[in-house]
Amino acid sequence: MSKGRFGKYGGQYVNEILMHALIELEEAFEKIYPTPEFQREFMGLLRDYGGRPTPLYHAKNFSKLVGFKVYLKREDLLCGGSHKLNNALGQALLAKNMGKRRLITETAAGQHGLATAMAGNVCGLETEVFMGIKDLKRQAANVKKMRLLGAKVNPVRSGAGILKDAVSETLREWSACSRTTHYLVGSTVGPHPFPTIVATFQSVIGNEIKQQILEREGRYPDAIVACGSGGSNALGAFRPFLEDEGVRLYFVEGGGEGTGAEDSSMVFRYGSPGVLHGSLMLVMQDECGQIRASKTRAAGLNYPGRGPEISYLCEIGRVRPGYALDREVFEAVRTMCRAEGLIPALETAHAIAYVLNHREEFDPDDLVVINYSGRGDKDLEAILRYFYGS
Amino acid sequence: MDLEEKFRELNRRREGAHMAHVYYGDPNEEFSIELIETLAKSGADIVEFGIPFSDPIADGITFQAACERALRGGVTPAKCIRGIEKLREDGLEAPIVVTTYFNIPYAIGFRRFLGEIKSAGAQGILIPDLPMEEAEPFLGAIREEGLHLIFQVAPTTHRERLERILAKASGFIYLIGLEGVTGSRLRGKEVIKPLGAVKRGAAIPVIVGFGISKREHAETIVSAGADGVAVGSAYARIYSEDLECPWRKLSEVARLASEIKKGCVEGYRGRDTLNNQGEEAPQAALQRLPVYQVRRNSILDGKAGGDEDRHLPIRSPPRL
Asked: Are residues A208 and A262 in the same domain?
């Protein structure tokens, strides 16, 4: 496979203005990332600032409910409340080493924007976050946090006012300032080298799972289940297990209302290969190549593309795609609240819902790890409104 | 008329080229046809025919809105291609360069797309999100079809990379005049340094685009050695003020088009004056104009100092 390609997926479909920045970033990543100095600083921050390693929790009540042993990889306990900080710290540190002065990024659920604002402050870099107006409203709590940390939050009004539009806007902004500013891409999407960089920084999740499950069970899990759209938390958990064919990998996307392509974010069902935001990947589009807006209640899964690596892994059958519908997701939140006293993020609840609703895919002696990617505080209002009305 | 022939003609007439960029179908097809014909009559030498895309990442707010309106109005790539045919049937002679984002030809099938725009009457294709590396596999097909692939270069393009792009380019080179998106504000003079670098290496004409909206821009840029300028958002800004009846704005569009063309002509002739004084045009223009400080990272040594404010935003106080 050529550099930056996963099968046919990937590539660098950006304007010439940005090519210098991608070339510079690739060189910097290859040069700086492997150095002991960088590793020491990165690992130190993940440990002392982020709180890593995150625990692998044996969810006994949930296990009893589904009939097999389930562990939760507690990324909700990472500082900031989701897995996003792993990548944000890594890239911010890289940007600092490259002499950049400013970070820009996009966010949907607000978790990545928050993580970037945190990492930016840690590394002494200005942070500016682009967010679709629709997401700005439904994730108000995270917007307040970002602003409190000093990040500038820019509403994006173009398109449908969702993640896809925020990514486009951040790419436009980057065109104007790429010499001094790093675009801290939040998921395993975008032009090469971003999908590889993000997956590399997130692989800390899977590496820890490997070590922790061996200590606890003396063997690898039979299955790992993760939610996703671009694919960062899933790839982070999956990557260290890709060679271990015995470990089934499930990728759960946003089913939305489940009534068709118009009302969902089911890219593996309704998508086809196309180019969006700098990369060839599976994307929801019409027959003319116009990108369709995705739809799901989980802002963080509301992206019409699947990153190039996850697109490829599903194509070759290594990763199994699945989905959860909005109503199943809210039920999964309730189940997890009652069983384990944990409020999951709506995104995370997709993985939980999948396990709850596809018990037949797992044997009673299966060891299943759910990547518990984030906590649900940000979704509290939406969850309460769903169950109790406004 | 092919691009080479057009540039030869313009050179004979001692004029810079004016390329007008329109997103077809904004707000409807009938208007776009009239708009393009008006532009061609008022001083546009080349038509940059935009096929709207849902996520135009190199375009500023004016063209984003234009794409959105056109798509809402139901325009499709097939309708765009019929629009090119219509323009040719109406007798438009100006060369047409089709501009669209890569997913449009990719979805249709790249070869099929090329064949369709060629037989409709286009001379070239410009894909803003297809850099040299990704364009490589398609160069053969484009050549076979007898079309020019118009490459863009930017102020951030590395010198060695510029040489590789120039070696593959045909038709003309599109120099992006500023770091940003279409419709940004250009002052004009910041283009001169990157332009000098591109002109020194280019065997084909160089057109400068992004942010050009005034006659003075065109004059400055052409007098500095550019073979032409591209103007787009400035026209869309005019007619989008009256979307109920954009036709009412056509005379204003025509006025700006002829102003831009005047700038292209005056710029060219100003360059001639300098030549008559026995100096190389671009270098002479360079000497006449203020030299901007070159940034450490500057690659084409083309960054004007005044844009610093874009790089160092003032931190806004927290708003809670």
From this structure: yes
Of B53, B105, B310, nearest to A290 by CB-CB distance is B53
What CA–CA distances, in Å, run from A17 to A178, A181, B162, B301? 9, 14, 12, 14
CB contact under 8 A, B297 and A179: yes
CA distances from B160 to A388, B91, B157, B190, B198 (A): 63, 42, 8, 21, 11
Strands B228-231 vs B173-176: parallel, antiparallel or unpaired: unpaired
| Residues B13-28 pLDDT 10s | 999 999 999 999 999 9
Q: A12: which chain B residues are within 8 Å (Cβ-Cβ)?
A: 131, 133-134
Which two tokens mark A56? Answer: 């692998």
CB A223 within 8 A of CB A247: yes
Determine the structural domain holding residue A358 and report its residue range: 51-81+204-388
Asked if residue B173 lies in contact with residue B166, where contact means CB atoms within 8 angstroms, the answer is yes
Give bridge partners of residue A104 from the DSSP assignment: A128, A183
Check whether residue A174 and residue A71 sit in a common domain.
Answer: no
Q: What residues of chain B, 23 to 52, have a C-beta less than 8 Å from chain A?
A: none
Contacts of B313 in chain A (CB under 8 A): 102, 126, 128, 152
- CA gap A284, A192 in Å, rounded: 21
Listed residues A198, A216, A234: the one ending a domain: A198
Tell me, yes or no, whether A221 and A139 share the same domain.
no
- Which tens digit of pLDDT belongs to each residue from B190-208? 898 999 999 999 999 999 9
ipTM of the complex, rounded to two decimals? 0.94
CB contact under 8 A, A14 and B154: no
- To which H or E segment does residue B174 belong? strand B173-176
Dihedral over Cα of B114, B118, B120, B122: its sign: positive
Give the span between the Cα atoms of A68 and A365, in whole angstroms.
6
What pTM was computed for the model?
Answer: 0.92
Say which of B37, B48, B190, B266 is annotated catalytic. Answer: B48
What are the residues whose beta carbons fall under 8 Å from the beta carbon of B103, sequence distance 6 or more?
Answer: A274, A275, A276, A285, A289, A291, B53
Q: Please give the single-letter amino acid code of residue A369.
A: V
The dotted CATH code for B3-311 is 3.20.20.70
**Contact predicate B130/B102, CB 8 Å:** yes
